[in-house]
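Dear colleague,

Following up on Tuesday's group meeting, I ran the structure prediction for the two-component complex that the binding team flagged. I've pasted the input sequences exactly as they went in, so you can double-check that nothing got truncated or mislabelled along the way. The C-alpha cells for the whole assembly follow below. Feel free to forward this to whoever is handling the docking comparison.

Inputs:
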Amino acid sequence: MIGTTLPPMTIHATPTFVISTALATRDFQDVHHARDAAVARGSKDIFVNILTDNGLVQRFVTDWAGPEALVRSIDIQLGVPCYAYDTLTFTGTVTDRVTVDGELRYVIEVTGKGDLGDHVRGTVHIALPEVTS
Amino acid sequence: MTETERIEAAAERIAAQGASAPVLGRDPVNQAMVNTWTEAIGDANPVYTDADFAASSVHHGLVAPPAMAQVWTMRGLHGTRAEDDPLGAMMLALDEEGFTSVVATNSSQTYHRYLRPGEHVAASNRLENVVGPKQTALGEGWFVTTRTTWTVGDEVVAEMTFRVLKFRPSAKQAAAPEGARIIDAPEYSDGVLRPVISLDTAFFWEGTQVGELRIQRWGDTLRHPPGPVDPGGDLDVKPDYIVARGTGTVYSYVVHHHPKVPGKRLPFVVALVELDEGVRVLGELIDVDPDEVAIGLPVRAVFLRIDDELTLPAWEVVR
C-alpha cells in the first residue's frame, strides 16, 4: 500500500465551477463570484475558495479509496490561486501508516497543480473499514 | 507605539479572551445542502446521497461529507459575526493598520466522527496566534491563525486550525507614474526567459508591472541587481527602494545577431544603461537601428508587458 500512486483527477475550474462551489460551501465573498470585485482587489479573476479545495482533496482520495473509506483528517496549504478557466490536476501517493486510538490509518500526500504552479498541497488520513474491522 | 506593537498588543488581548461562545449553524445538517455540495464538488460517493447504499454501508445510514464540517457554520450571505468572535476582532485591528485584504492559506481539519442529517452543529473560535509582518508575493501582511471547535450538544465532532494572510495589497493596481510607457508585448511571450523572482527581487518585478523602475536602497546606497544583504555587511540593515526617473545613458551594449533567442527578432540590442541615479541596469534597447547605438546615447525606460505574470524593463532612445 505505501508508495501506491492515486489515479490523477482533473478539474476544469470554469466560472460556473468556481461560483457554484463557493455558494455550495456558503462562502459569499465577492472574490469567488464577481469578477469586477476580484479584479478591483488585485486578482486576475474570480478564484476557487479554500472550502472547495478541502472538498476536492477529500473527493480525490475517496474516489480512489472507495465510498466506505473513513476520512479522519484533511490538512491543506494553498499556493498560487486557482482562477476561473484554470485546470487543476490532482496527484497523490500513500506515504505512511499510523495508528491513532487503535485505528490503522493511511497517510496520503496530495498535490493539486494549476496553470500557475502548485495550487494546493495536503495530507489526508483515512481508515479503511476492511482493515479496521 | 509602533504599528507592529499595536498589532501585537491587539493579538495578545484578543487571544487572552479565549474561545467564543458556540454559535449554531443556520440549519441542521441536511440533505439539500449535502446534495448541492456533492454536485458542485463532483463527489459521487453514495454514502452521502444514496439512502439504500448508505444503509448497508459501514455508516448504517446517510452521512454528510466530512469536508463539509465548516460549511454548516458559515455565516451565509447576511450573517454577522458574533461580538466575541476573535477572528472578526483581529481582522478589524489589522484593517485599521491598512492590512485590508485577506486570503486563506491553511486549513487543517480533524473529524472525530461523521455527521448525520438532523444534527445541529455549533462552532466556537479562539485566536491562536498572529505572526508578522511578513513580506509575501501579495504584499506585506500578517498570518492570523484561529482554532475552531465544532460541537453537537457537548460532544466535540470536528476541529480546525485555520490560517489567513491579512495583507496590504501591493502596488500592483496602482496607476503607472506619469509618462511611463507600458507596452503590451504578448509577441515576446513565446519561450521568453522568465526571471526567478525571490523575496529579494519581488519588489523590482512588482514595480515593472506598474511602470516603475525600482532600485534597491540600503541606507544611502543604491544597489542593482538587488541583493539579500547590505553591501556594507551590516546584518541589521533592511533595504527599501526608490523609484528611478527611468532616464540615463548607454554605458555599454551588444548587438545580438546569432543564435536565435526565443521571443526576439534578430538582430537586437542589449544595453547596460547608467541611470541618472548612478546605478546601471540591463535591458533590451527597442525600436532602434543597431548602427544608431553609441556609448552615451540618452535613453529612457519602457516596460514590455509580456503577460499577467511578467513585465520586462527595456529601453528606448530619447529623440
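Chain B touches chain A at residues 33, 36-37, 39-47, 53, 57-59, 65-68, 70-71, 74-77, 101, 103-111, 114, 138, 169-170, 172-173, 308-309 (CB under 8 Å).

Cheers,
M.
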